[in-house]
Structures are given as C-alpha cells and as structure tokens.
Amino acid sequence: MSEKTVFLVGGGTGGHFFPAVALGEKLKSRGHRVFLITDVRCKKYIASDFPLKTRILPSDTIRRG
C-alpha cells in the first residue's frame, strides 16, 4: 500500500479533537502521513511529545444575524 497524506480537522472541544487524534494515530501506524488542523482552544491538549504534526489556525463560530 502506498503512503497517503491525510489532513484531519477538529477543534473546539475535546469531543471533536480526541476522536481526530485517535484516528490520526491509527492512520499513522498504518504508514500514512497525518496532519491535524485545529484551533487555539485545543492548544492545551498538545504537548511536546504529541504524536501528530499539528497546525493551529484561527477560527470563529458563525453567528446568526
């Protein structure tokens, strides 16, 4: 199987972030290159030994009106 590059996006709360991390770790163990894109709210979960390459991008919610 050839290596694939996968981008996972999950931000805000741990409810989106941790499933993305779990999936990313599984894909990485199968030989894929994995990048996680998240927002500043998840920065507190990312330590120096974090298993995935990560980008933190500014984001905001869509407000009505």
Descriptive report:
With 65 residues, the protein is α/β, with parallel strands linked by helices. The protein is built from one helix and three strands. Strands 1-2-3 form a three-stranded parallel β-sheet, with helices on one face. The protein is elongated and about 50 Å long. The N and C termini lie far apart (49 Å). The mean pLDDT is 88.
Give descriptors for this structure:
23% strand, elongated, 65 residues, 3 strands, 3-stranded parallel β-sheet, 1 helix, alpha/beta
Question: Could you give a short description of this structure?
Answer:
The protein has 65 residues and is α/β, with parallel strands linked by helices. The chain has one helix spanning 14-29, and strands at residues 5-9, 33-38, 53-56.
- List how many beta strands DSSP finds: 3
Gyration radius, in Å: 13 Å
**Which range best describes the helical content: under 10%, 10-25%, 25-40%, 40-55%, 55-70% or over 70%?**
10-25%
End-to-end Cα distance: 49 Å
User: Widest sheet: strand order?
Assistant: 1-2-3
The DSSP helix count reads 1
Give the low-confidence spans.
none
Major sheet details:
3 strands, parallel
What amount of the residues lies in strands? Answer: 15-25%
Mean of the pLDDT scores?
Answer: 88
Q: Please state the overall shape, judged from the principal axes of the Cα atoms.
A: elongated
SS class:
alpha/beta
Written as H for each helix and E for each strand, in order along the chain, the element string is EHEE
